[in-house]
Amino acid sequence: MIRPLLRGVIVDEERVLLTLSRFDYEVYLLPGGEPRAGESSSTALSRYVQEQTGYEVAAHELLWIRDHTTSNHGLLLNPPGSYVVELFYRCTLSGAAVTVAPGGGPQQVAVEWVPGDRLPSVEFLPKSLVEPLVAYLADRSVIPPVYVVEGA
Fold it and tell me: Which end of the chain has the lower number of beta carbons within 10 A, N or C?
């Protein structure tokens, strides 16, 4: 089964907006999720970001693409046997945040603006995106769309 997942890259100066989820350990994730049938990517992404973070956003260009199977990842975010294609879009804030409880499911425990220099030291998924994301936070003018390759 192929699962498309949309992720929002929302930055403020040199910080990125992340959700914090607790499984067997805590992990930071970019907000997002799977679009509903007939839902556009921009609508789905805006909905997920607002549900999970309380921020209203507008989705823009595609920054990164990542694909993987659930068999090569220990975290059970996707059904076993899934082939996942994640699309990471640049998003901008389009309104003030509203007070909201974490809406990313029972595992989500917080929403946090994380500085780029802290990203390499936190548990962040996907790990393969840490380096491109840190570079993007430092200089948003030079990062073209990239296919993020997972390590063996």
Answer: C
From the number of C-beta atoms within 10 Å of its C-beta (0-12, 13-18, 19+), residue 55 rates as buried
How far apart, in Å, are the Cα atoms of 26 and each of 59, 62, 110, 136?
Answer: 27, 27, 10, 24
Q: Is the pTM of this model over 0.85?
A: yes
CA distance linking residue 91 with residue 57, whole number of Å: 6
Quote the mean pLDDT of the chain: 85
Residue 107's pLDDT is what? 87
Q: Give residue-wise pLDDT tens across range 105-143.
A: 788 999 999 999 999 999 999 998 999 999 999 998 876
Domain boundaries 2-146, CATH class: alpha beta
Whole-number CA gyration radius for the chain? 14
**What are the extents of the domains in the chain?**
2-146
Query: What Å distances lie between residue 108 and 25, 92, 112, CA to CA?
Result: 12, 22, 11
